[in-house]
Amino acid sequence: MIVDATGLVLGRLASVAAKSLLAGEEVKIVNAEKALITGSRDFIFKDYGQTRARGHKEKGPYFPRRPEMILKRTVRGMLPYKMRRGRDAFSRLRIYVGVPRELKGMPLEQPDAAKMRTESNNRYIELGALSRRLGANF
After folding, report:
1. Based on CB atoms within 10 Å of each CB, which residue in 8, 39, 42, 122 is the most buried?
2. Is the distance from CB of 30 to CB of 3 less than 8 angstroms?
3. Whether the Cβ atoms of residue 66 and residue 32 lie closer than 8 Å to each other
4. What is the pLDDT of residue 138?
5. Which segments within the chain are labelled E, that is strand?
6. Which of 25, 7, 40 is nearest to 17 (CA)?
């Protein structure tokens, strides 16, 4: 299953991916930087900033900056990753910024369950904008 994350809500995309992974499918997500996080811009920046500042790589809870790693961490939170089947499922997940050369020209899916429900809602930001705010260079 190859999913295009453009315009899909981050949490819904993660739950669809987690269900597919637990069912035994291999999931590849492209354009991770174009996934949407709903809510007010200020709240999102504040919330993720606090999460990021809570720990660091050597000690404490590490929270990534790059968009593909944030999405991967979100999917991991929906899997029983400390158990064998969760680790196996997590190993079948691949996430990319943009579309890699080997996946160009292949059919991309956009699950209906992960789409934004109302188009008039302008309270969202792209995952790439959040990553840049957290200090990622991609």
Report:
1. 8
2. yes
3. no
4. 76
5. 2-4, 27-30, 36-38, 93-95, 124-126
6. 25
Backbone angles phi, psi at 13, to 5 degrees: -60, -45
Report, as ranges of residue numbers, the positions in the chain whose pLDDT lies below 50: none
Q: pTM of the full predicted structure?
A: 0.88
Q: How far apart are the first and last CA of the chain?
A: 25
Domain residue limits at 34: 2-134
CATH of the domain at 107: 3.90.1180.10
pLDDT value for 120: 59
What is the count of structural domains for the chain?
Answer: 1
**Apex CA 63: angle with CA 59 and CA 64, to 5°?**
120
Mean pLDDT of the chain: 90
How would you classify the pairing of strands 2-4 and 36-38?
A: unpaired
Query: CB under 8 Å, gap of 24 or more: what pairs does 115-124 form?
Result: 115/7, 115/8, 115/9, 115/12, 116/7, 116/8, 116/9, 116/36, 116/38, 121/38, 123/38, 123/39, 123/40, 123/41, 124/9, 124/36, 124/37, 124/38, 124/39
Residues for the chain: how many in total? 138
